Amino acid sequence: MTELTRELNGKYRMLQSILREMDSLAIGYSGGVDSTLLLKVAHDTIGDRVIAVIGQSETYPTREFEEARSLAQEIGARFEVVKTEETDVLKFKENPPNRCYFCKTELFGKVKEIAGRDNIQWIADGSNVDDRGDFRPGMAANREKNVRSPLLEAHMTKNDIRELSRYLNLRTWNKQSFACLSSRFPYGQSIDKQKLSKIDRAENVLRDSGFNYFRARHHDDRTVRIEVGPTEIKRFADDSFRENIVSALKEIGFTYITLDLFGFRSGSMNEVLTDAEKKQYTT
User: Fold this and answer.
1) Which of 69, 99, 223, 233 is deepest in the core (most CB within 10 A)?
2) Contact 56/82 with Cβ under 8 angstroms?
3) Could you report the per-residue pLDDT of 145-193, keeping only the tens digit for each?
4) Reported pTM
5) Domains of the chain, with CATH numbers?
């Protein structure tokens, strides 16, 4: 078993203390690295006084939804699935740079309803220290809904979360970070359920092809831009492999299949935003 450093062990104990002080919480749970660790430690610390709330919608990759349910069951935690309807919100569909605000508002509105129903004191998410340096307009919704971030309060970084997850034998410890499918569209391009379904299916093709890091970016109804890990790009040099990928993506409905030679990077659609624009949508 991996041993924790003295510093990380201290943060772990701090997280447990924070959760005991909170006493009960409803977590906006995605099955990702961060929220899975939070759910695991909360369940170990306060038992059935924590509930994971999984928001199901067209923006949530189908495989990720299935894995979130499976992970919650493995942990032994209570969980509930709620249908979120951000794709019916006009401002969300218009896809402005603060699109995540509308998604988070919808999700945590549903989580708050469950917390009120079950007499749960707090709602929480898996935000961590490293998220403060990223472009995350959804954090405004957290403030409005009084969402607490216990991992952030315990000063945990992404690396801390992965190391503690490995120590606790969570299979998510080295999982790729993922964002909702709406992040695959350039800002200003409208989002609808049909487009989200196409991207979900396209990413399943990449996942089933064995890529560890990947995104399928929807640039218009005919064009998809593939991002994979820089060391995985060379796989496309194999003619048979490349042709199989192209054939599968054409069957989904794309005409032009492009490969981004820069490789996978989280949040690449944010590269068009200036620092001033990012500040505008996060303050």
Assistant:
1) 99
2) yes
3) 899 999 999 999 999 999 999 999 999 999 988 788 999 999 999 999 9
4) 0.88
5) 6-167 (3.40.50.620), 181-265 (3.30.300)
